[in-house]
Amino acid sequence: MSDNKNSDRRDTRADRDLVPDVVLDMSSNQRAGDSATSERLQKVLAAAGVASRRVCENLIAAGRVTVNGEVVTELGSRVEASSDLVAVDGVAIQLDTSKRYIMLNKPTGVVSSMADENGRRDLREFTGDYEERLFNVGRLDGETSGLLMLTNDGALANVLAHPRYGVQKTYIAKVTGSVNAPTLRRLKEGIELDDGPIAADAARLLGSPSQGHSMVELTLHSGRNRIVRRLMAAVGHPVVELVRRQFGPLHLGTLASGATRELTDAERGALLTIAREHEQAAPPPAGEDTP
């Protein structure tokens, strides 16, 4: 009887030795080959603020979630928040919480630099409250105010700032003289400048000319240096004041001059989606714009 018991114990141990070592951590559903830092997809989505974990599970099961471009429907799937690209319904989700995305309404008189060599006001004035080392996405010249994005996400910054990707920007320009319909048509059809032709994606007059000035809204995807000022000067209406109101999917809204705010989840998702689409098409070279 004793021998049978010992035999049973030996058989049980042998059976356990034959079971593949697939599940390493039952509580986390971690499998062989998974990184120690990977996490369940539904947990990561919930932590990113997409929805509750139960709703995230439903999104996964419904085939609405992709990881690195592939639809994932298995609830036990695990991802690396620092490297995997996750999207819900085609909208990118920010998983890496170390990345910061800040909107600044840059005042005039401030240069788009984190350390101006000439001692002028620079962007350090607006980044002191953030622990991360932020830098600007593209540039606005010192006398142009408006929407400037600050981030520590270098990959996203390269895509958004480089002219080859054509991210649209919308400006409100106060210009000298009375801008008329033929002038707006010229702006949209294209003007020849010293460094080549340029055309506005959209141009319209805001209100009626008053006291020798006109207000013009211009949308361009060009990132050429001081392009708005040069474009308006070329049609005989030099810029007096210039503000950028929109950058890609971001709108300045009612943000006060000199104020900053975190981007919303929707704004971050829209920016990350644009960046990922362009990164997958072709890696961006370095570049920046100055309207």
Which CATH architecture of the largest domain?
2-Layer Sandwich
- How far apart lie the N and C ends? 91 Å
Question: Regarding CATH, which class of the largest domain?
Answer: Alpha Beta
Outline type: elongated
The count of DSSP E runs of length 2 or more, i.e. the number of strands, is 19
CATH homologous superfamily descriptor of the largest domain: Pseudouridine synthase
SS class = alpha+beta
The number of domains is 2
Radius of gyration: 27 Å
Helix content range: 25-40%
Oligomer: single chain
Our count of helices gives: 7
CATH topology of the largest domain: Pseudouridine synthase
Low-pLDDT runs: 9-28, 284-288
Mean pLDDT: 85
Order of helices and strands: HEEEHHEEEEEEEEHEHEEEEHEEEH
The biggest beta sheet is recorded as: 9 strands, mixed
Strand content: 25-35%
Notes on the protein architecture:
- The chain has 2 domains: 92 residues, RNA-binding S4 domain (Structural Genomics Hypothetical 15.5 Kd Protein In mrcA-pckA Intergenic Region, Chain A), CATH 3.10.290.10; 181 residues, 2-Layer Sandwich (Pseudouridine synthase).
- It is 26% helix and 28% strand.
- The protein is built from 7 helices and 19 strands.
- The strands form 5 sheets. Strands 9, 10, 11, 12, 15, 16, 17, 18 and 19 form a 9-stranded mixed sheet that branches. A 4-stranded antiparallel sheet has the order 5-4-7-8. A two-stranded antiparallel ribbon has the order 1-2.
- A hairpin with a 2-residue loop joins β17 and β18.
- α4 packs across α7.
- The relative contact order is 0.14.
- About 9% of the residues have low confidence.
